[in-house]
Amino acid sequence: RAFNFCAGPAALPEEVLKQVQAELLDWQGKGLSVMEMSHRGSDFIALAAEAEQDLRDLLHVPNNYKVLFLQGGASQQFAQIPLNLMRDDQKADYIETGIWARKAIEEAARYGAVNVAGSGKVYNFFAVPGQNEWKLSKDAAYVHYTSNETIGGVEFDWIPEVGDVPLVVDMSSDILSRPVDVSKFGVIYAGAQKNIGPSGLVVTIIREDLLGKERSDCPTMLNYKVAADNDSMYNTPPTFSWYLAGLVFKWLKKQGGLEGMKKVNQQKQELLYGYIDSTEFYNNPISQTSRSWMNVPFRLIDERLDKLFLEKAEKNNFLNLKGHRSVGGMRASIYNAVGLEAVQALVAFMKEFEREHG
Ligand code: PLP
Fold it and tell me: Does 137 show up as a binding residue in the annotation?
């Protein structure tokens, strides 16, 4: 298989894909695939509950939180958050750290007043703004931030302190990459296609006291309480994605859970940034304290070599290294399923390219 550095949909663990392949025609001797099963049947209900429990175990989710398996990706959460948490007369605080935070801000502004309480703009979005720079409202319905900007490659390595105001986080591209204290949050949401499973699925973890606060015009399908009351099965859930996510959670447990992932992910990012910093040939502009462990944007100092770099990379089985169209350059996304050996191979390739063209 290729080394896949795609930002999303991203690489999945080979072991998981092999299991899916083995179970595709005949899941556990039942003579059918999970894709063909009723979501109301006892088999699927048990499978879904097990996936939820495994995720709870991995993240140590406290009992007063609901774990929801929803649809529409993280982008739908950009609307679902204000629809459920912000009344007409309220405002919400948002921290702007890059393209994804901006999208969340623009969507929320359709439903109520948004206060951009902090912004990385002064740093060209090469760093997250420190909390001492934020101007939080006194009466915000919630504070929203993006823990990892997938395109910009900036990540919070700290959790904001916002007192009693619910803290809402888009954790799409760093969930499950290392341990996190769920009890600090009101809502955590994450599109699945990086560290969880297939795209389309989104996991939302919400503190129970935040349920039932939706606006009167909130669509039923976007109402967190309806989803929670129906165990995420108000309508037909994305059953195959849920099953596959469950297999990824089991795989994560086998890797030593999130402590295990943290160890490997730390090594991976140290290796890649370490090499980029050691040479004049490549460059990463992100401030040391805001560097993402999952998405590593980098540039070749001589941009004329970009095309050749990408061509050679692809020939050598290193896929999807092209940076986001809005940023240019390169980006290596090194999510959980991209092992240390993949990063070692990438660094060796980058060194060789530098030797040939530097
Ligand atoms: N938030 C972040 C941080 C992302 O990286 C993405 C995209 O992958 C999204 C939100 C949007 O996710 P989706 O495409 O699942 O709607």
Answer: no
pTM of the model: 0.98
Task: Tell me: do 48 and 130 sit in the same domain.
Answer: yes
Which of 239, 254, 269 corresponds to the end of one domain? 254
Residue 8 lies in a domain: no
ipTM above 0.90, yes or no: yes
In a domain, 299, yes or no: yes
* Closest-lying ligand 1 atom to the alpha carbon of residue 149: 3
Distance 73 CA to ligand 1 centre (A): 7
Instruction: State how many domains the chain has.
Output: 2
**56 annotated as ligand-binding:** no
Task: Give residue-wise pLDDT tens across range 83-141.
Answer: 999 988 899 999 999 999 999 999 999 999 999 999 999 999 999 999 999 999 999 99
Are 205 and 145 in the same domain? yes
Does residue 168 sit within a domain?
Answer: yes
Dist. CA 145 → ligand 1 center (Å): 13
Which tokens sit at 151?
């395109």
| Judgement on whether residues 348 and 292 belong to the same structural domain of the protein | yes
Question: What is the CB < 6 Å shell around ligand 1?
Answer: 8, 73-75, 100, 146, 150, 170, 172-173, 191, 199
Listed residues 254, 277, 299: the one ending a domain: 254
Question: Rounded distance, CA 327 to CA 79, Å?
Answer: 26
Q: What is the span of the domain harbouring residue 279? A: 256-357
**Distance from the CA of 107 to the center of ligand 1, in angstroms?**
13
Beta strand pairing call for 187-191 and 167-170: parallel
